[in-house]
Amino acid sequence: MHGRLLLVGAAVLILQPARSIGQSFVGRSDAVPLLAAGQKVRVWALEQTTFLGMPTPRLRELRIVGTLTDYHPPDSLTLRRTALFVAPWRSREHTARWESIHRIDVPHGRDVPGGVLAGLGIAIGYGLGIAFVERVFCDVEPCGSSVLKLTARAAVVTIPAGALAGLFTTRWKRVY
Fold first, then answer.
1. Are 18 and 98 part of one and the same domain?
2. Smallest Cα–Cα separation from 107: which of 127, 82, 130?
3. Of 86, 94, 153, 163, which residue is 20 to 30 A from 67 by alpha carbon distance?
4. Residue 176 placed within a domain
């Protein structure tokens, strides 16, 4: 019984990278995007992991944001990472083979609406959390404040803060 379970577990671990490779080829029928060198892009690719410099059978998803330096759609693309901090053991230049790429995004404006919604969500969570704690630890009637009052008080701060945070983040549009 335990032997079968061990064999099934080993088969799942072996087939998992093959399954994710197969899933990455689903989008191959899409049209190749028209991109130019110098354009900012976000690339999602599968990369083989290494352990002590030796390749392993596991794959990991890699998301790189950078500026295109070389673009050859049927073969590969090269980009220069634009992150403020890049690990010292990684190069700023990264070349991805076309068959490992399963998604390419381009910038599509600022994410102010997303920041406003995040601020509203934080305000609602704050109102619900404080009202719950007040009701749990209250000994006198009437207990605590209204959830709507607490949410409105928090929203005065969190919604503008969320909008400001959204101003500094980028929305992305998928092109491949």
1. yes
2. 82
3. 163
4. no
